[in-house]
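Sample A.
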Amino acid sequence: MVVIPMKNGDEIAWKDFRQSPQEKVRFLLRTITAILAMCTLGSTLLLLAACSTQNNIVNPSSGIWKIVHSANPGSAQNYLSAVAATSATDAWAVGSFSSKHLGFQGTKALIEHWNGTSWSVMPNPNVGKPGNFPSAIAAVSTNDVWIVGNTITDNSVTNTLIQHWDGKVWSNVKGQNPGKELNVLGGVVALSAHDVWAVGSLSNSFDNPQAQPLIEHWNGTAWSTVASPNIGTNNTTLDDAILVPHSTRIWAVGTGATYGAPINVTPTTAGGITQETPVTAQTLIESCCS
C-alpha cells in the first residue's frame, strides 16, 4: 500500500493508492538516488553501529571502512540511532545513554557532533526524568538542525520529543501529543527552515494500543498535526521518512498490523500451555509534498 499527496487548493493531503509495477521501479530508483547522494556528501558516509556498552562510528575511506572514536558518556549503555551531515566538517549523531544496565529509568538523550576532526558530546536539555529517546535527525543548515523521538513522563505517558539546534544551543520545542498515553516520532525530514515534517504513531492506551499514524509539521513557528490516511488495520505505525534529493518529495514507511483472538499454544520445550496472538501485517508507504 502506498500513500501519495493530493493538493486541494493550498492544502496538502495524504492519500492512499495501490502501488503499480511502474511506481515500484520509481521508488527503487529514488531510494538508490538517495543513497548515492549521501555517499557523495563531503566524500564520507557515516554508518552508526550500536552495542550494549559502547558506540562505534564507522567511516569509509577509499572503500575501506574504519572505526572512528566516539564518546560513551554512559557507564552501562550507549546507543546511536541516527546521523545527519551538512558538510565534511559538520555532522550530528543522536541516540541515548544510561548508567544502569537494566530498565530505562534515567536514560538521557545523547547528541554527538563531528567538527571534521573528532566527535564530542553536546549538552542538551533532557525532558523526561525516566527516559529520553531521540530516534531521528535532519539538518537544514549548520545552524538549523532537528531531532525527534519520544520521552517518558513521570506518570509513564510517552510523549513526543522534539529538539532544535540554532547554531549555539539545543532547546526543547513543544510538539503535539494527540494520543492519551503514547506519542512517538520515528522519522524527520527538513525541507527548509519553515517546512519540516515528522512521522510516528499515537495511541490512547498501552493495554490496547490501537496505534494510528502520527504526522506533524513545522511551519517556522509551531508544530501541528496533519491528517494521515489509515489503511484500516488496528495497529498502524509510521517508522521512518526520507527526502528525495533535489526535490520536495517525502517518503515515509511503516507497518499496518491486525491482531486476531488469542489462541492456546503448546510450547515445544517444557512448560504449560501459553496464549499467543496471531498477527497479520502489511507494509505501509506514504508520500507527500511533491
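Sample B, a different protein:
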Amino acid sequence: MRHPGSLAPLAAALLLLLPVAACSKDAPTGPTRGALSLGLTTPNADDGAVLLAIDGGPVDSVTAVGAYRVYGGAAGAPAGTPLRVIVRGTLAAGPVARVWVPDVSAVGAYRVTVEQAAARTTYGQRSVSGYAGTVTR
C-alpha cells in the first residue's frame, strides 16, 4: 500500500542522478592520446629532405603534414633511442609532420633534432647548422 508523500519517487530520482554526480568535471582523467606538431626552422629556401630524430617519450607513429611525405615513423625504436624519420618535399619553415603520442600533455618532454638535410633538386647533403626542430601541441 502506497501512502501519499511516500519517499519512493524521491529515492528513485536520487538513484538516477547518482551516476551524473559521479562524473564531475573535476574528476581526474587519464592521459589523452593525440598529435603533436613537428616544426622545422631552415636557413635555406630549397630543402628537399630532412632526417629528423624524435625522442623524449613513446611515439605511436609519425604522419606528414600537407604535401610532404614521411618515411619511417612507425613506432618501434628501442626504448632510450630516438625514432628517426625522413620528411621529403618542397620543404619550408613551419610544421612538417605530426607525431602521435599516448599523452599530449607530455609535450615538454619531446625533442626533435635535424640530423641531416638535403637540397631539393640535387639531394646534395647540407650542413645542419642553422636548422632546428620544434615540438608543439
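Observation for Sample B: Helices lie at 8-22.
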